[in-house]
Design a protein that fits this description.
Length: about 140
């Protein structure tokens, strides 16, 4: 079964390379080399966590299509797993986003849980929940 997957992957890569050639698009590695750019992976310093799609607004520009009718929210088990991962991984920053992260019922536990393990917690919010009183605590 693994052999079949490897062959399939190889044939997909060949097809993509052929498509790039037909459009005159050079492989990324060649473009980097031609421009004298040498990319090297360094440590991952930021963990971005999306806690769900629930939001008190329905903005047309939202790339997540978040809104008041979206019910997908990170549950307590996943929040606990994120905290454990942050503890093991040594990130500098946890970047919490969503829909509206402050509407997630586990946001307080998540923030308190990761604080001891990172230097910075960033929360991306539209802040309007704080004005209209939709969040109880």
């Amino acid at each position: 079964m693994l052999k079949g997957k490897l062959q399939s992957t190889s044939s997909n890569e060949s097809q993509r390379a052929s498509e790039r050639e037909s459009f005159g698009i050079a492989p990324f590695s060649q473009t980097l080399a031609r421009n004298g750019i040498d990319l090297k992976r360094i440590e991952t310093r930021v963990l971005q966590v999306n806690v769900g799609f629930l939001c008190n607004q329905a903005c047309r520009h939202c790339h997540l299509n978040a809104g008041p009718d979206r019910k997908e929210n990170m549950d307590e088990k996943v929040a606990s797993d994120v905290i454990s991962y942050a503890q093991r991984s040594g990130f500098h920053t946890i970047d919490i986003t969503g829909g509206a992260p402050e509407l997630n019922p586990h946001i307080g536990e998540l923030i308190q849980g990761v604080l001891p393990f990172v230097k910075r917690v960033m929360i991306r919010s539209n802040l309007s929940v704080l004005n209209n009183g939709s969040r109880e605590s």
